[in-house]
TrEMBL record:
Bilayer-crossing regions: 20-40, 52-72
Protein name, UniProt field: Putative solute:sodium symporter small subunit
Domain of life: Bacteria
Organism of this sequence: Roseicyclus mahoneyensis
Alphabetically ordered keywords of this record: Membrane, Transmembrane, Transmembrane helix
Domain Sodium symporter small subunit: 8-84
InterPro entries for this protein: Na_symporter_ssu
Length: 85
């Protein structure tokens, strides 16, 4: 059974959104908190350096923002493709 072209476009948009969110999350949690920490350690945030802040709080906040962004953007994609509630 062949899939309809609009289904392919819908899933392509969904996968693209998930990929972007995962890259941003990985950059914030793994990149800034671990790999790039020596580069950003001189920047003070809340009495500590920015690398430590990302490791302890920043990656969690980025993750929460991404959850709301994903829900908002997915609702928009659903409406564009006619699969909204």
């Amino acid at each position: 059974m062949a899939e309809k072209p609009h289904n392919n476009a819908y899933w392509a948009a969904n996968i693209r959104l998930i990929t972007v969110c995962l890259v941003i999350w990985a950059l914030a949690s793994y990149g800034f908190a671990i790999l790039l920490r020596p580069l950003i350690s001189g920047i003070a945030v809340g009495g500590t350096d920015l690398g430590f802040w990302f490791a302890q709080q920043g990656s969690i906040l980025v993750f929460l923002v991404l959850i709301f962004f994903y829900a908002w953007r997915m609702n928009k994609i659903d409406k564009e493709h006619g699969v909204d509630e």
